Amino acid sequence: MDLPALIPLVLVVLYLISSIKILAEYERGVIFRLGRVLSAPKGPGVVLVFAPLDRIARISLRIETMEVPAQDVVTRDNVTLKVNAVIYFRIVDPIKAIIEVANYLYATSQLAQTTLRSVLGEVELDELLSQREKLNVRLQSVLDQHTGPWGMKVTMVEVKQVDLPESMIRAIARQAEAERERRAKIIHAEGEVGAAANLEKAAEMMARQPIAIQLRYLQTLVEIGTEKNTTVVFPLPMDILSNLSKLLEKSSREA
Length: 255
Prior knowledge:
Elements (H helix, E strand, L loop, with lengths): L2 H16 L1 E4 L3 E7 L2 E2 L7 E4 L5 E7 L3 E11 L5 E12 L2 H6 L4 H17 L4 H6 L1 H16 L4 E12 L2 H43 L2 H16 L11 H17 L1
Antiparallel strand pairs: 1-4, 2-3, 2-5, 6-7, 7-8
Helix pairs in contact: 3-5
């Protein structure tokens, strides 16, 4: 076979080799033939793309991670703060992801920023700090509803960080300190109530056995002596004072 007849054969072989495309397991290829998309995406494996009649657009089916930049959010109780988040999504319909939106990554990023500001702007600061899981589910629902027509599925949305102003941080710290003091006072009052009830029972028992108070005095003196204090406090029974006052009153009347 002469060389001029071999050149077309070589060109055909090179064209067929260049038409072979290999798609990974997580990839799908959307084929446009003469400008019209084929009914089903191709892949994974070996795919033939006959240029210039065909054009292929590769789409990954793996979960994509997108970080939403920090957004200035004004809550319902007029507190200004910065909030950022992270979104996890994947492509479930490659054809829609190519045809319905020009750049699904950019469109999802812009939609996530506006949704984050609008959803968090409807709640108060306490709800944002304490009910973050509920807000994550709400953000996921809103984003999934809007990105569904683009062939996407939002699997998870997480609010990463909430940056509060310094004045608000100090106010929250004072509020937490006041709450701890309130609980401490309540616990102390409950302890006083319990102690008063026990003292009442002890007084009733000692009233039935008057010698018990004397034994208690001696026990107190023993405890003071073990501490080696220079000052000794000796408890004086109240009944002695009452008897003494009665004697003084009686003597004054007789005088």
